[in-house]
Design brief:
By secondary structure, this protein is mostly helical. The protein has helices at residues 6-19, 23-35, 37-59, 62-68, 70-93, 98-104, 112-124, 127-136, 148-181, 185-208. Helix 1 (6-19) packs parallel to helix 9 and helix 2 (23-35) runs parallel beside helix 5 (70-93). The longest helix has 34 residues, at 148-181.
């Protein structure tokens, strides 16, 4: 399996990458501002599950195909970007209904299962994550020791545990700030709109960036 000196090194690289706000963090923050703490944490769990599906895909060789195929990469990128824009637009449209949801302690009037699924869909449709796993995971695998797939699955699990903790912290901080806005319907509606616009902007950014060769 993975040598002890490789696992801490990979964990350190993963932490440095995760702790800096990126697409997943911005998505969670947008959800926290638009729908609150429960929706943010449920989104983190769904996003992490989706990301681990990517780990499994990379470990089984799918990542290499995506990394080398511009068509597949672009299709996944646009699918993920389009879904982010859709979720952001829905958050903006439903921003006036946020105050009753806060009073009830609910996730913006949306079921947890649906929120989990939406987080999963965004996580599994993130082509940048696929490319990162395809490029980084092999660098920390000891092919001479054998069991390459289990090694990659273990490394991917380490990455996702770190992401789960860090993204949850971001979500809780954003949700706490949202509670202050909840004292005023106007402020809450405004922050819900900001959360939705954040997700829309993130979707546009994902669609506009990445490899074009």
């Amino acid at each position: 399996m993975v040598f002890t000196d490789r696992l801490p090194a990979f964990a350190a690289v993963s932490f440095l990458l995760i702790v800096i706000p990126g697409p997943s963090v911005l998505f969670v923050i947008g959800r926290a501002l638009a729908q609150g703490r429960r929706a943010a944490l449920t989104t983190v769990v769904g996003n992490t599950l989706g990301a681990y599906v990517l780990v499994v895909g990379v470990a089984l060789g799918v990542g290499t195909v995506v990394e080398r195929s511009v068509l597949v990469f672009t299709a996944l990128k646009l699918a993920g970007a389009g879904y982010l824009v859709y979720l952001g637009a829905k958050a903006v449209r439903q921003r006036k209904s946020l105050l009753p949801a806060v009073a009830d302690g609910g996730p913006g009037g949306q079921g947890s299962a649906r929120t989990l699924w939406e987080g999963f869909a965004v996580g599994v449709a993130n082509p940048k994550t696929i490319v990162f796993f395809a490029a980084v995971l092999p660098q920390f695998v000891d092919r001479g020791a054998g069991h390459v797939v289990p090694q990659m699955l273990l490394l991917g699990l380490v990455f996702n545990v770190i992401a789960l903790v860090c993204d949850s912290v971001w979500g809780l901080v954003a949700a706490t700030a949202r509670s202050w806005f909840a004292r005023s319907p106007q402020r809450l509606g405004a922050v819900g709109g900001v959360g939705g616009l954040t997700m829309i902007g993130l979707g546009v950014a994902v669609a506009a960036t990445g490899r074009k060769d």
